[in-house]
Amino acid sequence: MGNREQEAKIDYMHILKEQFSALQTEHLELRRKYDLQCASSTQNSAESENSLPSKLLSITASLLEKPRFSDIRFKFAGSSKEPLPAHKFILAARTSFWKLDDDVAEIQIPDDVDLDAFHVTMRWIYTDHVDMTMEDEKLLKVCETAANFKLEELKNVCVQQLGSRLNVDNCIQIYEFAEKQSLRQLSQVCGGMIAASWHQLGPAHFAKMTAPLLYRLIDGNTKNVLHSIVSIGREDVLFLYFMQNTAKMPGCLNVLDEDGSTALEKALCSDHEKAPLIANQLIEKGADVNVKDVERGETILMRMCRKENLPAMDFLLQNGADSRLCQSPGEYNVVHVASRMDSLKLAKWLSDNKEKLDLNKVDAEGRTPLICSVLSNNHIICESLIRSKVHLDVTTSEGHTALSTCFLMSEAPNRRISELLILNGAQVNFKIYSQQVPFLNEIVSRKDTVGVEALLAAGADCQVTDERGITACHVAADVEATEIMSRIVEARRGLKWTRDHEDRTPLDISIGKRDLKTARICIKGGADVNARDKNGQTLLGKAILANDDEIGVFLIEHDARAKEQDRINGKIYLESACERGLLNTVRSFISNGCKLNSRCSTGYSLIHAALSHEKLDVAALLVNFGCDLESKVALSAAGDVLEDGDEGWSTKQTLLHRLIDDGDQPGAVFLIENGADVNARKEYSNPIEDDQFTPTHMAISWAQNEVLRALKDRGANLCDVDVDGRTPAHIGVREQNTEGVKILLEAENVEFIPLRDKFGQTILSQSMAMKDHQMASLIVERQPHAAVQTNGNGENLLHQAIRQNDIESVLFLLAVAKADPCRAITDGSGKTPLHLAAIAKDEMILRNLILVNDNVNVTSADGTTPLLEALRHRNDKQAGILMENGAEPNLKDEHGENAMLCAVRSGSLDCIRAVADSLKTNRYTRNKIGYTSLHICALLTIDKLPKRTTSSDVIELVLSYEEERNDQLNEKQFASFIDARDADGNTALMIAYSQGNAGVCRSLLKRRACMGQRNNGDVNVFTYETATKQLLLGLLESLEAEPRWSDGDTCDCGSRFSLTSRKHHCRHCGRHVCSKCSETTMPIAKYGEEKRVRVCDVCAHVISTGTAPRGAIRN
């Protein structure tokens, strides 16, 4: 990699140099043209070519080596070539070297001048051009020629070109030339190049250079002069160095270079033929053979050893090198260095020089050369040292010997070395790691079976413990070294299975790691499977605690026993195994004779322990072996399980009850599916506490729907009721357990749907009462006729929903349950849902019922229509809705009253408007006793009217329809309506007066109602017995118009009218009177009557005084 990078770098530099040379040539050409341009410059550049300087230069170039105008010749000494013509003025322009007097016609050129170089020089003189592509040799000769003839400009060009061409191959040649020509700058550049490339230069490069020049080159351009001289093998230059540095020796001979080497080491490592001679000369001049380098602090002998330079090592020993000298701070010697080098030559050298070497030297880490050779897995050196009788059991600071190092610290145990060490008596019973860990334990921990066998064969003690009480067997168990444990058991009979600091035997460790192979070997070797730790716990108990089924089976199969007193958290081993789901352990327990139906800690059978921890596979195993499923127990009042036969019990229940109470659905389902009694009830010593719940009641109450489904599938009686008569379905509806009720409805037998509890509720009615329509829809879907069931009042669910103003339930019953909207209540009233909706507060109920009813005029048993029902309850909105949807207002009930009469009787102004606004309404109809709407108004006392409504308001509203409507009556018809008489002959005024209804009386009198009309009992308002006559007098006083005249055969005083006793009428009150009762005449101003007219005595007095005369009115 490095070589390729260096080659790439050299190529790159070569390219740069070529580019530089090209640029230099271009620069010279440009400079020549520039000089020419400057010389020939005129004001008109277009005429420059025709200028005198330009033409002179052009003519000069054309005269090169031409006889034209020639006035001098160059003659070459020692050459047969023709003389070269030249021109004095051109030569004079370039150099002053030659004397060009007029009488000089020929110049002699010495024979040492190179002709080719001279021609190049002449070309430059005439043309100012030189070819820069010429070879280095030729360029050097041109430069030399230019220097000889004082052509400085050409010399400088050549020097620059030579500087740019410098490389490893030509730098020495150019340096010699520069020194010869005294070219200082070029010489320095060449010296720097030589110094930088010194490692690439060898003796051959300097073979032709003179000693003084070479010494001057080295001295001026290298840092370590002596090292550089040694590396090129020039004794003559070395002699010059000794001559120049006599005063500095021998100190200068031991100087280290950048690699930490002395000149002596360089000489010893050099491969040229003069190297030994140079080394001897250095020794003779006082070079130190024990110098240490700076980087490692190693002697020359150590460094030569690392390079396996055996001749150099012998040379050093022969010249007094100290082989026992140690490196600092590592404190190792040359033998330590050799111990890491796999070399037969070094091994032999150590053996040959063992007397001169310290073979047992301990370095700073406490390691001998033997240990170091073992660390390096260097069996060659190791064998050589052992044969040299080194100490085998020297220990390091950590207690390691060569043997332990061979096994533990080398890259891979070298059996050859370990066998050699053991055969030569190396100790095997020692402790390592600061005397804490037995050597055998460490070998076992590394699972080195071969090593353990070797140590056992050498007599290693297996019972030796470390400071934590760990033996080799403990370690073998811990690392699961089955083969090693087998070797130890076979090699050492009668082992003691001791416990370590954690109270573990090797068997405990093997079991803890679930290493059954090793555990079998331990048991085979005598380990006690029933041994107890300091807490009294056995291995079987620990295996159960660890939920280790495999280990539990293993221990039981190897004679582990569970005694009655053996407990885990107060529970016997079998119960604990059931709780933890240790299927195979439980099977092994039962197969080995454990009691199957023994009670666990909860008082129930063992199946409870398995089910309570969701270990269904264990529970299934117990069932297969015949475990009791019912497991009935007696409980105290506090819920504690009592012993059999204890009379203080409060409740008795089965395991199924317990699991449902605990919410253990998987366990309960398991019991049910495996045949537990699904209809079992709890038993109570006090019957008052007995709620009569079956498992089905319990499951649905706690929303344990998986249990519920299992009970249903296993044939549980779904019609069983609790103490309140509720089936499980009732409980599910009450608890809003929709999923549970759905499961019950999936049963084949759903006889529980129509069953009622003690409160009269079926499951459907209960869901409707709770407005749980989702559940109700499930019930109706399963049994559609459930919605028509009636309660004790003869009402079905639709009737009840309407009464409760439950629009959601109504819509549900109509849309989902398909309830009959025309079905009447069966209590004898005959009211239909429409009748109930007419008095409901939510008008949407009525609207929806109208949509599904063909007849809005359906009647109840008493003939009441929904419209009449709404009016009687003052529901004007419902009445209006019914009227809008075709209700007939003139249909009468059993009393003969139509909608108008019912509206008036209700006293609701809005109801009256709702009915009277319809043109279809007969406002003048009478009931069976002859009452018109006015008669009914007369009966409306304050207790029969809505709040803030008076009888005056009602009658005024009724009369307004007669006075303001376009279909109003004529005067006679209106008078007949006002004075209409009922079956008893009473007018509305008479009834109002008898009821003390002053407002109605005034409204009627305002419309000239007849005051004197008598009923069938011959009684009128004047003769009707009252406590006082204040009402009558007030009415008379308030008259604004003369009432219509009454008619009759007798006067109120009892006189019968005849020819002699004529009939008269009081012009104030209109009643018929005799002459005796109407003797007074007077004008009636309020009537506008200015003439005196006949008035009765009562009216006369009222008109006169405002009070009635005493005795004027007889009752």
TrEMBL record:
One of its GO terms (molecular function) is zinc ion binding. The keyword Acetylation does not apply. Keywords: ANK repeat, Metal-binding, Repeat, Zinc, Zinc-finger. It comes from the Eukaryota. PANTHER family: ANKYRIN REPEAT AND PROTEIN KINASE DOMAIN-CONTAINING PROTEIN, ANKYRIN REPEAT-CONTAINING PROTEIN-RELATED. Pfam families: Ank, Ank_2, BTB, FYVE. This is Uncharacterized protein. The keyword Plastid does not apply. Residues 70-134 form the BTB domain. ANK repeats lie at residues 259-294, 502-534, 651-683, 829-861, 862-894, 984-1016. Residues 1053-1104 form the FYVE-type domain.
